[in-house]
Amino acid sequence: MTLKSSGQLSQAYDAAIYDLDGVCYRGNEPIDHAGEAITAAVDSGQKAVYLTNNAARTPASIGEHLRSLDIPAQDSEVYTAAMAGAELATEHIPAGSKVLVIGGEGLVWALEQRGFTVVNSADDDPAAVVQGFHPTVGWQVMSEGALAINKGAVFIATNLDASLPQERGFMLGNGALVKAIEHATGVVPFATGKPLPKVFQQAAESISAVTPIAVGDRLNTDIRGAVAAGLDSLHVLTGVNDARDVALAVPEERPTYLAKNLLGLNEEHAAPSVTGNRAELGGEWAEVTDGTLSASNALNGASMDLYRCVVAACWIALDEGADRDSLFTQLAELQVN
Predict the structure, then answer these.
(1) Of residues 161, 146, 53, the one with CA closest to residue 100
(2) pLDDT (0 to 100) of residue 15
(3) What span, in angstroms and rounded, lies between the C-alpha atoms of 122 and 152?
(4) pTM, full prediction
């Protein structure tokens, strides 16, 4: 994967698949420029879908949250891991079947929308157990799920995120709780959610997108999933992964375009020209020679052109066997102005 050049991304792609936390908002706080950038993209004709691994909330709840932050989201433009899990259930059990839910309101809603009957006991002989994160999930409901799976119910997970970022740090995610049931039953679940490619395809299909671009802040979910789904992607520096992470990204997690924030969605993008191990763009340059990174200017306060050159040069070096730990140290001061 290499960086590409493009005209305004909001014109070059008919839809954007937005991640939420770290892209559109941070907890209950809006991210700078998110509302204005998405509004401009939508006004220019680009469709939007908001894709989240959150299976606890309904699209209506998420849509209301986004609108409260001046992001022009319709409820019908929200696609959750719960919806993906319900879609997956339709592929494995008959319509109208009983389903035991390990999760919250968002997952119950999604399954009922698909015509399934939600139950809460293994004694009801559910055809499937569908598990999605909710902070109220505990031993009793997980044990009911294990009992049902041991009796032959299909096991489905809405996502496999091992951890969940919270104010105090990273706490247990749905994947960690899924592992407990997998360990108890010996049954590996059918799974969806980012970074699996199918959920990106489902999100795109939900708004009839033909040439979508994925927009995210996390390399191992948003960008990895986009790469796996064969979609171009835009990485923004407003969330989890910083500029150094991008420069050190493995091929499966390399974005197509780079931006500081969502304003990049409505801007033209130029890719560095590469000669040997040197990347050049807009008067800036970067290269890695014999494991040493050199650049036209200081990495602290780098312009977007220099950032793109550094990323391109590091990707070339890594693919040629450069020492990742050494580059990690040399990139310590990389900050985009």
Answers:
(1) 146
(2) 98
(3) 10
(4) 0.91
Instruction: Judge whether 222 counts as a catalytic residue.
Output: no
**Exposure string over 228-253, b if 16+ CB within 10 A, otherwise e:** bbebbbbbbbbbbbebbbbbbbeeeb
Q: Which of 19, 161, 217, 245 is catalytic?
A: 19
Low-confidence ranges of the chain (pLDDT < 50): none
Predicted local confidence at residue 161, as pLDDT: 86
Q: How far is it, in rounded angstroms, from Cα 271 to Cα 254? A: 14
CA dist., res. 105 & res. 134, Å (int): 9
Catalytic residue among 14, 21, 75, 124: 21
CA dihedral 156, 161, 162, 163 (to 10 degrees): -140
Letter for the amino acid at 322?
A: A
Q: Measured between alpha carbons, how far is 71 from 267 in angstroms, rounded to an integer?
A: 19
Q: How far apart are CA 194 and CA 200, in angstroms?
A: 8
Q: What whole-number distance in Å separates Cα of residue 134 and Cα of residue 136?
A: 5
Q: Under DSSP, is residue 256 helix (H, G, I), strand (E, B) or coil?
A: coil
Known active-site residue 125 = no
CA atoms within 13 A on the CB side of 255: 29
Report pLDDT for 331.
98
> Could you read off the pLDDT of 91-129 as tens digits, one per residue?
999 999 999 999 999 999 999 999 999 999 999 999 999
pLDDT value for 327: 98
